[in-house]
Amino acid sequence: MRAILQLQGVTRQFGGLMALNDISFDLQPGEIVGLIGPNGAGKTTLVNLVTAVYGLTKGKIIFDGQRIDGWKPHEISRIGIARTFQIVQPFPKMTVLENVAAGALFAAGAKSIEAAKERALEHLQFVGLADFADAPASALTLADRKRLELAKSLAMNPKLLLLDEVNAGLNNVEIKPALDLIRRLVERGITILLIEHLMKVVLAVCSRVIVLHHGQMICEGTPSEVVRDPQVIEAYLGLRFARRGQRKSGHE
Amino acid sequence: MKRILLVLAVLGILFIPMVGNNYIIRLTTIMMLYCVLALSWNFIGGLAGYPSFATAAFFGLGAYTGAVSQGQGMPMYLAWILGALVAAGFATGLGLAILRLRGHYFAIASLVVADVLREIVNSTTKLTGGGMGFNLPILRLGVDAQARLFYYLMFVLAMLTIMTAAYVNRHRLGFGLRCIKQNENAANMIGIHTTIYKTAAFTLSAVFVGWAGAFYASWVNYIEPGDVFDVLFSVKPIVMVLLGRAGTISGPIIGAIAFLFLEEMVWRNILTFHAGVLGLIVVALIFYLPDGLLALDFRRLLGWRRSP
User: Fold this and answer.
1) How far apart are CA B116 and CA B105, in angstroms?
2) ipTM for the assembly
3) Which residues of A touch B168 (CB under 8 A)?
4) pTM of the entire predicted model
5) How many domains does chain B have?
6) Phi, psi values for residue B72, rounded to 5°
7) Residues of chain B positioned with their CB less than 8 A from the CB of A149
8) B211 in a domain, yes or no?
9) Is A251 on the interface with B (CB under 8 A)?
10) CATH 3.40.50.300 fits A1-80+158-220, yes or no
């Protein structure tokens, strides 16, 4: 099967800072892959590179057989790549429905504003926000704003969805419906790259995990492999815990 | 109810030249000119949220294009169209250059454009008459007939501007511009080609203004750089839109009418210090009514409805 997204030697430097160094991986269609790493590892930068917020210093990005590095953000959004923002970015004075309709109109090519609003309502129902369709986006709670962000991205009719910490700031009660939502997205056949801090979420939904640390890709594998990898433990908890973890697994 | 009022207003305006004296006709022509300026600024300032101070540049450019091309022997009607087209083309080029600036930076960049054009006109004495001004060919019409001609022409232009604004407001372009105003990065991310949208808004903010400038030149028969490139042509539309309500259709119109009313009242009663008093009134209105006159609940003010 042809990979839907391929990164080949992707590198980005900000002045003297190597934000991402020689990152290469593939995403297969329908896969849900976790992207984890400590703060400052370069996770959001990676999303920003794929969505053309920044250009690459070196390397290639291939989406669906097409090279897309060097494209403009609005072009990226129209070929089926959507993202959510870690810090939600609604159009605050528009209604929830209009926010979602904007995605359907400009990225997914709805014929008219009315048609876009019809489609938007379906997406609002999908994420469970239909009751708030006519409320201004600024009136939503954080959890609902994250769902709005998701509905907006879905309205763009994506093949690939980059979810940048859609669960950050949610409490334990709010996490479960959010998880169900992600699973239902996968059922629709959308490929997902999930940036996530909560290991619980990563272990529950991801088939594969990629770990970044200081701009390097230090590990790639199934969730259970990754959490046992000494380099990953070291990145998160320090060297001492990595050694202790190794001793323990030696005893078993 | 709203429709009936609208039709009555339009009929009333069409009726004025038959009954009104030349003062009323002149005042209403200026009112319609103000509507054109305010609605035009609303495309870039109200919808896209880019505080443009380039209106005077477009107005002066339209006026001088119309005037000079008539001086070269072009028929008046074609010269007006040319004024509109040159202003629009100029705005497109200018927009591509300066619309990448945001906020105050864009405002400053757009502010100096009128001054640059004024200096250019001042120094191309052979073509434009420079600081001496430019005399247009005299129309072979009586004073009354001329006043009525430009009244109706300005009416047509105002209607054209209103219809364009209403169309844009309801369609893709207006929607996209509102997205850009609220969050330009997010707008870009959901597939809006922001450069093209902003440039379209800037061009729309110029085409009718250039046209009005060309009308104005023919109307007053004599223009000079300091008159048509006056910075007040940039400032007044902004005040009008803020006075009414930005981003709407009726807001700029109501703002334009209210502004003209204030200007005329103050000018008549406080001749020596009218600009100062007008400024104070405008500051007070914007301070106490930041969302514009349209945000007022008139029915409640008039006691027709109890406050909720």
Assistant:
1) 17
2) 0.84
3) none
4) 0.88
5) 1
6) -85, 0
7) none
8) yes
9) no
10) yes
